[in-house]
Design a protein that fits this description.
By secondary structure, the chain is an alpha+beta fold. The protein has a single domain (2-174), classed as Metal Binding Protein, Guanine Nucleotide Exchange Factor, Chain A (Beta Complex), CATH 2.170.150.20. It is built from 3 helices and 9 strands; from the N terminus they run H-H-H-E-E-E-E-E-E-E-E-E.
Length: 175
């Protein structure tokens, strides 16, 4: 029985891992408000290297937000500013303002982090296997800037059965 579960999990995860491997690397806009990638609009703009991109994020984000979003840390449970938020609105990526989740998909999972059962769209987030911390989990990344948001688990409510367990620091909220 356990081997069947592992086999099914591999059948699902291998195509996801292949798709993630072919995703275009992310860039963020520079402080001059240009996208940082070479393009036909402004061919003089050279692509930013990873060091430059991370420097931009360090300048934009608080130290805690940088540690969580870019270094894949986790905030302490039950401490996040959006854990108890019940306002109606949209949750955005704190690094790039990408729409991630709506308040109508947020629920109290009792986990200590804001939990959602569905992202705004299939493109708003991406997932990948995370084997850190001595266990295998599914990491949730921003679909735009690839920043670490949290993890997703298969113990959520209907209709999806998913629990997107997201760090508050990784989110911005707008009513």
């Amino acid at each position: 029985m356990e081997n069947n579960k592992i086999f099914i999990l591999l059948l699902i995860l291998i195509p996801v891992m292949i798709a993630i491997a072919f995703l275009k690397p992310s860039t963020i806009c520079s402080t001059s408000n240009e996208c940082g990638t070479a393009c036909s609009i402004n061919p003089e703009v050279k692509p930013m290297n990873n060091t430059e991109i991370e420097k931009e994020y360090k300048n934009k984000l608080s130290p805690e937000a940088y540690r969580i979003l870019r270094e894949k840390a986790t905030e302490k449970p039950f401490t996040g500013k959006y854990y108890h938020n019940k306002d109606t609105g949209i949750y955005y990526c704190a690094a790039c303002d990408n729409e991630l989740f709506t308040s109508d998909t947020k629920y109290d999972s009792g986990s200590g982090w804001p939990s959602f059962y569905k992202p705004v769209s299939d493109k708003s987030i991406i997932t990948k296997i995370d084997s850190s911390a001595g266990m295998q989990r599914t990491e949730v990344l921003c679909g735009n800037c690839k920043s670490h948001l949290g993890h997703v688990f298969n113990d959520g409510p209907k209709p999806t059965g998913q629990r997107y367990c997201i760090n508050s620091v990784a989110l911005d909220f707008k009513k």
